[in-house]
């Protein structure tokens, strides 16, 4: 049995493998910090190019501060010293640039593929949850996500020359 104390740098939690009403239920330990892209890549369902494109999109989404917020942000407050580099103005400009990159990438992917891409890459949903949320048939998400990531990688290659930059 895996002991969470053996993995101090990971958030380990327990996950039920079967529905609660199933007869054969099993609890397993999982890394709660693991992204769906990393999981799919380790199982050879996505290649390195697709994962790199997805991670770049996720970084832009995070830098653009497009995620849901629960509380007010106080770190962007205007300070008296605007000449200091890395202040609120620099953060705001970086956020605007990341937002433009994110929206350009999602526009390049297209509206039919952007839905699954946002759910899995940006929101961190698993494929099963994304398929249910979109009303898609079971096991269709892997194929559509692969197509979306291929189109995203092509966008990055055409606009910046490489994905890992």
Poorly predicted runs: 7-12, 15-19
Q: Total domains, how many?
A: 2
Q: Which strand-content bin applies to the residues? A: 5-15%
Q: What is the average per-residue confidence, as pLDDT, rounded to a whole number?
A: 77
Spatial order of the strands forming the largest sheet? 1-2
What is the element string, with H for helices and E for strands? EEHHHHHH
Backbone CA Rg: 19 Å
Find the structural class using helix and strand composition: mainly alpha
- Sheet having the most strands: 2 strands, antiparallel
In DSSP terms (H or I, runs of 4 or more residues), the helix count works out at: 6
> How many strand units?
2
Helix fraction, binned, reads 40-55%
- Distance from N terminus to C terminus (CA atoms, Å) equals 40 Å
User: So what's the overall shape?
Assistant: globular
How would you concisely characterize the structure shown here?
The chain has helices at 36-42, 48-63, 88-109, 111-122, 127-134, 141-160, and strands at residues 12-16, 27-31. By secondary structure, the protein is mainly α.
Walk me through the structure.
The chain is mostly helical and 165 residues long. It has two domains: 1-34, no CATH class; 35-160, no CATH class. Helix content is 52%, strand content 6%. The chain contains six helices and two strands, in the order E-E-H-H-H-H-H-H. The protein has a two-stranded antiparallel ribbon. Mean pLDDT is 77; it is low at 7-12 and 15-19.
């Amino acid at each position: 049995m895996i002991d969470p104390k053996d993995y101090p740098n990971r958030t380990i939690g327990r996950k039920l493998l079967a529905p609660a009403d199933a007869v054969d239920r099993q609890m397993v330990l999982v890394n709660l910090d693991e992204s769906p892209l990393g999981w799919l890549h380790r199982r050879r369902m996505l290649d390195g190019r697709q994962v790199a494109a997805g991670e770049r999109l996720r970084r832009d989404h995070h830098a653009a501060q497009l995620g849901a917020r629960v509380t007010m942000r106080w770190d962007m407050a205007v300070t008296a010293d605007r000449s200091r580099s890395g202040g609120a103005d620099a953060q705001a400009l970086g956020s605007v640039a990341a937002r433009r990159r994110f929206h350009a990438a999602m526009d390049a992917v297209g509206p039919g593929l952007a839905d699954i891409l946002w759910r899995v890459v940006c929101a961190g949903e698993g494929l099963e949850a994304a398929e249910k949320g979109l009303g898609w048939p079971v096991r269709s998400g892997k194929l559509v996500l692969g197509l979306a990531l291929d189109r995203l990688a092509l966008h990055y290659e055409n606009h910046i020359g490489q994905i890992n930059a």
